[in-house]
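Exam review. A common question shows you a sequence with its structure tokens and asks you to describe the fold in words. Practice with the pair below. Do the first one on your own.
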Amino acid sequence: MGSLSFEERLLIMNALVSNGETGLSQMELAEITSLSQSSVGVNLEYMTSTDIVICRSEPAGKVFVANYDLLENLFSFMNKNYGEGLVQVTRVVPVTSTELISP
């Protein structure tokens, strides 16, 4: 779950899943997500260490692909064990002090 616990990682995963099995380079991911290449690199390093992203070497360089088997198992587990117990949480919007003063 840590592999998906940051907005940057979710952006990267969305780009990878949207692209499919062809995969994307670090530079392509940076362009798609509007993140710096170094930020993409740091997050990809973590995501590949947890196997949620697979890195393969091609003649043009490294290509990253979502690990669909792992994602399927993860979401299946979450749905099976927690899906029925999940409820929508309504966020409370903080009120500023000026809004508390009635006219």
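Now try the second one, then compare your answer with the model answer below.
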Amino acid sequence: MMKRFALICVLAAAVAACTRKNPEFCTSTADCMDPAKPFCDVNGSFGDLMNDCIAAPMDAGAEPDAEALDAPPGGCSPGAALACIDGNLTTCSADGHTTTQAACPLGCATTESRCLTFAPSNGLGSALADAADQPDVVLPQGAKIDTDLGLVETSAGATITVKSVNVTQTGGPAIRVFEASSFVLDDLTIQGTEAVAFVAPGRISVIGKVTARGVGAVAGPGAVTTGAPCVGATKQSNPSSLTSFFEGAGGAGNATVGGAGGNSSSSAGAAVHTSAPLSGGCDGGNQIDLSSNVVKRGGGGGGAMQLVSLESVDVSTHGFVDLGGGGGDTYSGGGAGGLLVVEAPVVRVDGAATGITANGGAGGACNIAGADGDASANPAAAPVCGDHTGGDGGAGAAPAKDALTCHAPPGQHCGVSQNYGGGGGAAGRLRVATRDGTIEKSDAPTLSVQITADTLVTQ
């Protein structure tokens, strides 16, 4: 496309070269003074030249198609939507005389000049709308978040200002929702009792390891600690007794049921099948004494996280999200992996060094705590000591394991201990909703989590 120049040179005999403004050159509609050519074709959309004053383009038998012009006659209101055609939204620029164009990831609305959008789950719609007024946010490597305080800090303890709001849920923990026009998340540790969400109209990029997990008995943000069927059953032990058998505590449930404790068939936590409310993994069952005091704690559940973007969520470079459950203390159940909800037109997990994991923690046994679910495809391993093995944690589609139950003859017991191992915690879940119900993957990322994919409902 040729560009019309602003100046022309006219040579006259015996006179030096001179210049004058070309009356058909324009940078906005305001430059076009000829009533016969009142519109500025900034991009060359309607002729052979860019920056050219032109007559009004006409639809057959219709009025001038002002919405298709670079600016309507007399200019336009800065920021106003002018047209949405073939998946591209044209809006009025800040100068009021030119326009900008951007692709609509979900396409154009049919009755209005706007991009299609969607309503995020778990009550995050208002926060997403507000996020458009916030700056782009880059959280540096080593940043930390406390969801209860809404506090974001660098690795050195300096405060990072990020707007957040608190969203309450019925039947689930509160959600600490962070807002920005776009996010870049590097290595990041998230703790607290509230779940966490990041919402942005622009891209959310995960380029480092984002951790919101259970560690030992400490639950991740938004985990379920008590009062739910998915929590592993508490069991009673009496270390001073030499004649009684005691069951191992149950592993927590999430994607599947948890593992049963040793010498027990009913101590496992139940499976969970919903992503609303946004809740993390459940805690493993504790061991208590005869006075109901907790003597050995179950593993903490993995955290709950939601990522919402109107453009895309990209996990790349060394990007990783880990929502693993904690391992149970001796004879206690493992914690379940957590829940990640991602809602965006496009979701990409790109690279062998990237991934999403929510492995369950192992049950404890043999006076040894079970391993935490880690950021790999491998199940967390339970201690082994002959007849008193704990249950391994669940990983990906693999269910949590029951602790070993000994079938000794009447009047006898197994091994040297009468306290059986705890059951393993179940793996966690990932719910993804995109424009076509798929996740774009390349170079074999690690995905050790139960995945449910949905199609976004546009509006």
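Model answer, second protein: Confidence is low (pLDDT under 50) at residues 7-20, 58-69. The chain has two domains: 2-103, 117-459. Full marks require stating both points clearly.
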